[in-house]
Structure formats: structure tokens, C-alpha cells
């Protein structure tokens, strides 16, 4: 009897230990990783890419978030009840109109948000995309348009959808290294960006940035390819002598440059969303020797691993809150354009790795432990 009691005690201890192992503990929150998508009109006409087909593919790939570069109502509807979070976009030409006429902002919300919310999970609206480079004439209207869209949501008692705008790294951060010395380019920094940062802080929104290590690598001969591709080589690092921080990849260095620039303006704690990033699998012409399928796969695979590790960046341990890979489906395969897509025109994968984390190894372990725990419990109850 004592042996049975002793065995039961040991099994109980083992049960508690295995339960502790099986229970996930989160120390840092990994970044949400999504993709960008533009409507079928910009994709090969030979592929029948209906909104329902796109939504089904995104769900099958376990992609949690999608940035719609042109917010097609049919596409927004297709994501209803999928639990995929949508990042909507207001086209640049509409920015002055939404700024000057509040009723037009309400009309945009009525057409793109109200019919679908909350069945479709809409998380954020970007009013314009890289407006500063799109047209200097549009930039002064940016904040007013954002305010009108935000107020339209509030008037409709929709409080969980934030409003922001998307900037391009190269058009607002002239110097990325050292990151601690980065500042927003003037006069846009004071005239355009500072008031927007204040708005984002006040409305609990995020700073959105298009950030391409590929473009930074191409613009500087001093950056080795391994540093841009997250490779773990002995000399693949750059030291910020001001802070003593060592950077081991270009992505983190660029993110921290944005954070430093925001800190100069007193907004270092604003959440940052990387609205676009990626590495092209083909270039505009033969001079783009590093725009290859091999390098594209290396970059994407390493980026996903880095983001899922939850290690963040040297200046922001929690990292960026979301990252969107440009893009889900590639454009026409023809000369003169870069291809970035994760999928071919026929919706088959271009890469050998799975975009989704999947958690297959962990799932097997948890299943095994779950079965064992069940057997132990059954024994103890007998």
C-alpha cells in the first residue's frame, strides 16, 4: 500500500511538472506578422483572384493580418468572420478632399467601415501612403484628413479602430547611422510630422513606416550583404559609439533610427508598425544583382525568425508591434518591375519555407504531454 501511495505521489509531482512545461509562458510578445495586398486589377489578368479566394488563401496560410493597399469594399467583406485583422488605406488623391470636407470623410467611413465592422476585424486606417513624396501639395492636408476620419469613427461610436498615416523611411530619416543620432528631415519634421505625432499620442494610435533594408543596402557600399540578410557572421555588426549598442542586422538599426527620431520630438514611446518591408526576388534591370529569389528567401526567413523570437531591438525590447511583408501575390513577371510576392500568380508558394509559424513541434510535444497527463489522472482516480 505504501508503494502505491509513494508511486501516486511521484506521479502527482510529475503531473505538476509536465503541466508547468506544457503551459505557455510569455515573457515578451512577438510581433504580429502580416502581408500587404492590392486588388486583382493590379495583378495578372490571367489569374482569377476573387476576394473570397484571397481571403481563403490568407486564412489557410494562418496569416493574422492584412494591409489592403487599396481598400476594396468587396475585399473587406470577404474577410468577415475570419479573425484576420485588416489595415485599411485611404488613397493619396482623397487626402485633400477628406481634409476639406468632413462629410466626405464620414462618407468614406460609411462605405469602407460601417457595413463590415465588427464582423470584419478592422484594426487601423492609414490616411495616405508616403504622402510627403507623393505630392508636397497634399502634405499640409494630412493631419486635418486624419482628424476628420478619426472624428467620423467617434461619431459612429467606433472606438477600437485607430487612425494614422504611413511614412517612407527614406523620405523622413536622412541618416540611419548611428541610430541614436537620427532625426526627422526638416522642415517636414517640424511642420508635418510633429503635429501628427501629437495626434497619434492623443488618440493612442501607432506610427506607421515603410522600411526596406534592401533599399538602404543598395544606397550604401559600406553595408555588407550579410548585415542586411541577418546572417550570423563574426563581422556582421555595426556599433553605435554614442550608446554603446551593437547592431547585428540592418532592420533593427533602421527601426531604432525611427525610434530615436521620435524621441527627439518627445514621443519615444509611441508604438511603431512597419507597414511595408521585404526583399525583391527580381529587379528592374540587370544592375540589381542582389534582387534574387535566393536573397529574398534568406531575408524573409531570417526576418520571420527574428520577429517571432520576441527579442525586439536594442532601443525597444518589445520590438515593433506589427510588420507587414510586401506583398502577398506578385505582379506580372515582366521586365522593368521588381517582384516581391510570397505567391506566384496561380497562388502557389514561391518559397520553400512556410510563412506561418505553425508551431508543429510544440503542438506534438503538447499533444504527447496531454495524453500522458490524462493517463496519470486516470490512474490517480482509480
TrEMBL record:
Transmembrane residue ranges: 363-381
Recorded family membership: Belongs to the glycosyl hydrolase 17 family.
Keywords recorded for this protein, A-Z: Glycosidase, Hydrolase, Membrane, Signal, Transmembrane, Transmembrane helix
InterPro entries: GH, Glyco_hydro_17, Glyco_hydro_17_plant
Protein's UniProt name: glucan endo-1,3-beta-D-glucosidase
Origin species: Camelina sativa (False flax)
Signal sequence bounds: 1-22
Enzyme Commission identifier(s): 3.2.1.39
Keyword hit for Translocase: no
Gene: LOC104712221
Reaction catalysis annotation: Hydrolysis of (1->3)-beta-D-glucosidic linkages in (1->3)-beta-D-glucans
Oxidoreductase keyword on record: no
Family matches, as Pfam families: Glyco_hydro_17
Catalytic class of the enzyme: hydrolase
Amino acid at each position: 500500500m505504501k508503494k502505491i501511495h509513494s508511486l501516486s505521489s511521484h506521479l502527482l509531482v510529475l503531473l505538476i511538472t509536465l503541466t508547468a512545461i506544457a503551459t505557455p509562458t510569455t515573457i515578451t510578445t512577438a510581433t504580429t506578422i502580416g502581408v500587404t495586398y492590392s486588388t486583382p486589377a493590379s495583378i495578372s489578368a490571367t489569374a482569377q483572384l476573387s476576394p473570397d479566394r484571397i481571403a481563403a488563401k490568407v486564412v489557410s496560410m494562418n496569416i493574422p493580418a492584412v494591409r489592403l493597399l487599396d481598400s476594396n469594399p468587396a475585399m473587406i467583406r470577404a474577410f468577415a468572420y475570419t479573425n484576420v485583422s485588416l489595415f485599411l488605406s485611404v488613397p493619396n488623391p482623397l487626402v485633400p478632399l477628406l481634409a476639406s470636407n468632413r462629410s466626405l470623410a464620414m462618407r468614406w467611413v460609411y462605405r469602407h467601415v460601417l457595413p463590415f465592422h465588427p464582423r470584419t476585424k478592422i484594426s487601423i486606417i492609414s490616411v495616405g501612403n508616403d504622402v510627403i513624396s507623393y505630392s508636397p501639395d497634399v502634405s499640409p492636408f494630412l493631419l486635418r484628413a486624419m482628424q476628420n476620419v478619426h472624428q467620423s469613427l467617434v461619431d459612429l461610436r467606433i472606438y477600437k479602430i485607430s487612425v494614422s498615416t504611413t511614412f517612407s523611411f527614406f523620405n523622413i530619416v536622412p541618416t540611419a547611422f548611428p541610430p541614436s543620432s537620427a532625426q526627422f528631415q526638416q522642415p517636414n519634421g517640424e511642420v508635418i510630422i510633429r503635429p501628427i505625432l501629437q495626434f497619434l499620442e492623443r488618440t493612442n494610435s501607432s506610427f506607421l513606416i515603410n522600411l526596406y533594408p534592401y533599399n538602404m543596402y543598395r544606397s550604401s557600399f559600406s553595408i555588407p550583404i550579410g548585415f542586411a540578410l541577418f546572417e550570423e557572421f563574426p563581422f556582421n555588426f555595426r556599433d553605435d559609439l554614442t550608446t554603446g549598442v551593437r547592431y547585428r542586422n540592418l532592420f533593427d538599426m533602421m527601426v531604432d533610427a525611427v525610434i530615436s527620431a521620435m524621441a527627439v520630438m518627445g514621443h519615444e514611446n509611441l508604438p511603431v508598425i512597419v507597414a511595408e518591408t521585404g526583399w525583391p526576388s527580381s529587379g528592374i534591370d540587370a544592375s540589381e544583382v542582389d534582387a534574387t529569389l535566393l536573397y529574398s528567401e534568406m531575408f524573409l526567413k531570417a526576418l520571420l525568425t527574428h520577429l517571432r523570437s520576441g527579442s525586439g531591438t536594442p532601443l525597444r525590447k518589445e520590438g515593433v508591434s506589427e510588420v507587414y511583408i510586401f506583398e502577398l501575390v506578385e505582379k506580372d513577371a515582366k521586365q522593368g518591375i521588381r517582384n516581391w510576392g510570397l505567391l506566384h500568380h496561380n497562388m502557389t508558394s514561391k518559397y520553400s519555407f512556410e510563412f506561418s509559424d505553425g508551431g508543429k513541434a510544440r503542438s506534438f510535444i503538447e499533444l504527447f504531454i496531454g495524453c500522458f497527463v490524462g493517463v496519470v489522472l486516470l490512474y490517480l482516480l482509480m
